[in-house]
Amino acid sequence: MGSVVLEIRTADQTDRDAVARLLDEAFRDDPVSSWVFPDPEHRAAVHGRFLGVFVDVALAQGRIDYAADGSAAALWLRIPAGDHEEEAAEDDIPARMREVADPDNERCELVGRLTGEAHPTAEDHEYLLMIAVAPGRQGEGLGTELMRPVLERCDREGVPAYLEASSERSKALYERLGWRFTGTAVRLPDGPLLWPMWRKPQP
Question: Which of 131, 21, 12, 127 is CA-nearest to residue 72?
Fold first, then answer.
C-alpha cells in the first residue's frame, strides 16, 4: 500500500457537530460503547451526545486534529504532571457525560471514573483522548497519519504520550507506533477490558 497523504487542520467550534457524528459512527459498535449502552436502539439515540462531551472538552482544553475531508479526527489533551483530583472535582467530566447523555445510566459515569483512576500522574504527557476514522475508511492508515505529527513532536521534545485502547485490534496498532501496555488493564464490571498504554519518546 502506498503512503497515505492526509491534509490535517485544527478543528474549531464550527466543526463540533461533525466531529461528534464521526465519533458516534466510528465507535457505535465498539466494545466499550456496547457495554455502556447495551441496547442498540438506545445507543443509537444517545451515543452521539455521550461522545459529544469529549469533543467539547477537547475544543475547550486541548486540540482536535481533523482530516480536511472529514474522514478522521484525533482529540488530544496536554496533561501536566501532578494529582488532578482537585481539577476533576471542578470539572467533573464523567458526571457531565452521564447528565448529558443518559442520566439514569451509571455506566456513562463509571467508565470515566475507572479510566481516570488508572491515568498516570508522574509526568507531563500528551493524552490521546479519542481517535476516530470513518467506518468506510478504516484500514487505510488514516489514524496513523493523523497521529504522526503529534508523535513526531513528542519525540523531538522528549514528551511521553498516553491512551486507553478499547480493543485488541487497536492495541496492536498502537504497539506498532511505540505505545506499550502499562501492565494493568481497566476492567469494566461484567464488561470488556481497556488497555492503558504509555509511549516513551522515541530516539
Answer: 131
Task: Report the alpha-carbon distance of residue 12 to residue 59 in Å, rounded.
Answer: 7
70: left (phi over 0), alpha (psi -120 to 50) or beta: left
Nine-digit cell string for 132: 476516530
Residue 109's pLDDT band (cuts 50, 70, 90): very high
Residues in the chain: 203
What distance in Å separates the CA atoms of residue 107 and residue 7, rounded to the nearest whole number?
Answer: 36
Nearest to 27 by CA among 64, 3, 67, 55: 55
In the chain, alpha helices (H): 16-27, 31-36, 40-61, 85-90, 93-101, 106-118, 142-157, 168-176
Instruction: Please check the confidence at residue 197 and state whether its pLDDT lies above 50.
Output: yes
Amino acid letter for position 170: S
Task: Kindly report the pTM of this predicted structure.
Answer: 0.91
130 with 54: CB under 8 angstroms?
yes
Tell me how far apart the alpha carbons of residues 19 and 30 are, in angstroms, rounded to a whole number.
17
Q: How far is CA 160 from CA 118, 153, 157, 199, in A?
A: 16, 10, 9, 5
From 4, 148, 168, 155, select the one nearest 71 (Cα to Cα): 4
